[in-house]
């Protein structure tokens, strides 16, 4: 079977992410809803992805790439930029961190995740130049856990969702400050390079 003219993996993934970002996309985020958005039969999508989760894994990788691009190109606090990205694209964040995706992840998912968080790691390492690699990794993990927990509460409706830009900035700044306090406390406890 020949793929529909104009369809590509990249175009399908981009359409899926647009669908997730659209208000009231629940119920249409499936092969049929996506195919309708692309103007093709849902069976055409199987020429590019063997199943729904393969498409979702590809989309999760694209989200990490977009997060990395926004992190690398931004100014100011990288933790706050990470939080703001998650708030601006909450369905994407859910896809990457909350949704169960069956099947094997693409082999480059670890590298994509590392690229997306590299600005935070670099900022942390610059602030604590004598910290050991193990200490930095432990601090990053704890900081991520705190940020992820704060976002999980808000995205699940267990906290007041910041709607306006001012509220989003306030939430991002507060969450970043808390994560930095945890990371700094871990690094201050030890985990330093000799010398």
Structural write-up:
The longest helix is centred in the last third of the chain and has 24 residues, at 165-188. It contains 8 helices and no strands. It has 2 domains: 1-49, no CATH class; 56-188, Tetracycline Repressor, domain 2, CATH 1.10.357. The mean pLDDT is 88. The protein is globular. With 195 residues, the chain is an all-alpha fold. 26% of the residues are buried. Helix 3 (52-73) crosses helix 5 (90-97), helix 4 packs across helix 5 and helix 7 (133-155) runs antiparallel to helix 8. The chain is 66% helix and 0% strand.
Short précis:
With about 200 residues, the chain is mainly α. The protein is built from 8 helices and no strands. It folds into 2 domains: about 1-50, no CATH class; about 55-190, Tetracycline Repressor, domain 2.
